[in-house]
Amino acid sequence: MAFKFQVHSDIEFNHNRDFLEKADKYKPKLHQQIVNGKRLVKVIKDSAKLENTGVKKVADISNLKNMGMTRDDKIVIDFGQHCVGQFSIHIEHQGSPMDAPLAFKIKFAEMPNEFNYKSEDYHGWLSKSWIQEEMIHVDKLPVDLKLPRRYSFRYVEISVIDTSPKWKAYFSKPQVLTQSAVDTENFKQPQIQDLELKKIYQVGLNTLHDCMQDVFEDGPKRDRRLWLGDLRLQALANYASFDNTDLVKRCLYLFGAMTTKDGRISANVFTNPDYVPDDTFMYDYSLFFISTLYDLEKHEYDAEILQDLYPIAKMQWKYMQRFIKPNGEVIPDEDYVTFVDWSTEFDKTTSAQAITIYALKQLIELAQMIGDSDKSELEEQLSKLTEYAKNNLFDSNKQLFVSGKDKEINIASQVWMVLAHVMDDETNNKIMTKTVKKLFPIKGIATPYMYHHVDQALFEAGMQDEAIDLMKSYWGKMVNLGADTYWEAFEPENPDYSPYGSPIVNSFCHAWSCTPIWLLKKFVA
């Protein structure tokens, strides 16, 4: 499994000032809350947890202020929940006057297994500057130390590098000023009777809450960016929970404001400190701009945003024409990658065909809403795309879709064709029944992003029992392994998997994994 960085230094971008001003109009005022450290723990071996690593309480947090620390002493503070915000702690000294500065290291971890790794040993392809640790010198004590950088964590390890033989350092009052665009104080959960599903829902809610910041971030640890694929799923989960449509509108305007000169939408944008579109482009993510706008308009009709952004959505479709043959066949392009999942172990050609159909159906509905005279032309192309899929990609003997020149049968092809409703409901049920029989248990899929689509396809094919079983075996397994929030990447058959070569840079709170909120609200609760 690998990812190739895209670098397009010659691309020119638009900056639509009107759209950027509207994005700012929807900018949220962040809710802040102080969370205090809950207990002192030590990292232990625990075969039931991720990478056989858990924690055990060693002292009440009230004992911290009495623990004098000197060279090589170490403590781990557990905040009892996943937090996104600024860390602060009080430090003083006892003994002789300070004849040397205090030097110590702070390491933040979302999961205990992160403490198994040293930053100096990381040589992966993603920048090691994402590793959450600080080296700090303090010349004068006492001090109320507040770190300016925002961190994403539950656990904080403080390791004293040195003080002096003549005095000791005392730490106390560890706290986090957490932040989120939404508040859970008055939130009412749906009635879910199954206790395991109720826990799965809560962890999903935690994940979404902590990713809803100034924009819908993909992950508050990293990349702290607005990605279109993540946004589409976050928005759906948000409609089923916090229902903050302003944040969705803000994000859509940011994407719409900064297209390329030829109309393309970036796969992601940076928003801090300035609005900057990335030079990364993905076939499916560009089409999901259509989907995200459609989902918003179906949930809460907004004539202004439809009028503003429908032309941007339609432009994505126009740009994709170069990848669609006159007979309706979608031809993938290596320079305009179709993501689908982190895994590169399966062919994505048929998935691209299905996603194209999925998005075009939504564009046609948007065209109906706005009164676009090109609607009939779009419908004609939809017919060609659909007929090509039925006649050339569906194996009538195997009753499954095939993909690529080798006619590969993989889960993603079946799932996306079911979600695109290329076949009738009865056939979709047969497809997913065969998928479960022949392609389960799932292997080689690396992300909750793709698992979401598998689960949704099961629900939409009328296979609720199988969908719930998958949810419990996938998201439920993360919960059992210790998740407070859901992860960016997880292979149940290979729990230690990292797309970057080391879990130390994995995001253990990642937006695209929060969707049990939406799935449970829509299909179960």
Task: State the gist of this model.
The protein is α+β, with helices and mostly antiparallel strands. It has 13 helices and 14 strands.
Give a structural overview:
The chain is built from 13 helices and 14 strands. Strands 1, 2, 3, 4, 5, 6, 7, 8 and 9 form a nine-stranded antiparallel β-sheet that branches. It has a three-stranded antiparallel β-sheet with strand order 10-11-12. Strands 13-14 form a two-stranded antiparallel ribbon. Helix 5 runs antiparallel to helix 6 and helix 7 runs parallel beside helix 9. It is globular. It starts with 16 loop residues before the first helix and ends with a helix.
- Tell me the domain tally: 2
The major sheet is characterized as: 9 strands, antiparallel
Beta content? 15-25%
Question: Roughly what percent helix?
Answer: 25-40%
Distance between the termini: 36 Å
CATH names the topology of the largest domain as: Glycosyltransferase
Per the principal axes of the C-alpha atoms, what is the gross shape?
globular
Mean pLDDT: 97
| Structural class label | alpha+beta
What Rg is obtained from the alpha carbons, in whole angstroms?
Answer: 25 Å
- Which blocks of ≥5 consecutive residues have pLDDT under 50? none
- One letter per element, helices H and strands E, the order comes to HEEEEEEEEEHEHHEEHHHHEEHHHHH
Query: What is the count of helical runs?
Result: 13
User: CATH top level of the largest domain?
Assistant: Mainly Alpha
